[in-house]
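Hi there, hope your week has been kind to you so far. Thanks so much in advance, here it is.
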Amino acid sequence: MKVFTRSLVLSMSTLVSMSFSSAVWAQDSSVPPVLVQVDEAREQAISQLTWVPGTILSQTDANLASEVDGRITWMAEVGDIVNAGEPLVVLDDTRLNITLNQNKSNIAQWQSQVRLFEKRLVRFKNLKANNNMSQGELDAVEADLENAKQELAQAKLDLAFTQYQVEQSQVRAPFTALVVERLQSPGEYTGVGQTLLRVVNPDNVEVQVRAPLTVLPYVENGMMVNVQSKTHQVEEAIRAIVPVGNANSRMMELRIAIKPGDFPIGSAVRVAIPSSEAHDGVTIPRDALVLRKSGTFIYQLNENNEAQQVKVRTGVGLGERIEVFGEVDPKQHVVVRGAERLREGQKVRFEEADATLTAKN
């Protein structure tokens, strides 16, 4: 009887255990897919990078001066942006306008002299034709007319020069100019060639980089490089390479064109310059790496949106991405957010490019 009772208890325990396992399995199968964020594994050319410091500067940084003397009556404020051709500084042109009127008076005077000598020459030629005038007197009249014409031409040149000076009494922006510094102020008297303002072109900026000469074999014009500050990062092309170093630093200069507004002029940045031969490899975002005591691995998604664990080794870092070695399929997505809580074979739904996609059931 006791044996029968013990057998009955065991049978009931087994039945309860199987029922519990079935319930757990049903519960697991009903768990919705986990939401993760994914990115791509990318096949690309990879080379060792050297980070070098750079400075943002304007290709056009000018100290402007006046071509005429005068008292400053108006000047653009620091921080003003002035379009090309518009005035930056205005000088008092009273003295120049007086000279301009004098030049116009001189022109009128010599024009009348030319007309007088022309009439006299006609009359003297008629007298000479009738033998009532000597050749010497006729030559003197012709010389007087020629001198008057030359004086008239000189008076016209003086007028043109004064008009030019009047125009230069307004120092105009040679390009779209951001006023950085005022070296003189309204009310002061300035002389020819004395610096008035420092201006830069905010629309024409680039990065000045000092790089070791050892990277010269691995860089070329047009090569895309990574430029970053503490708050911003862009990828732009090398505009110019100056392959000349000095005996002390063994550094050469690179210029990298950037878009206006990416970085403030004068700010410090870092630039990633290749320093080794390129080779083909696979890169992933650094955030995709899952670090454990047992090693480093990533999760990729198969065609059924199931997480597949792939063990990897890391290689060359490329900014936000890093080279990996292992059985990584560049055609499959890599999980970059939420990988820490995934299990092998677990279904997921993922976000990519601002669109949420739901996993297949």
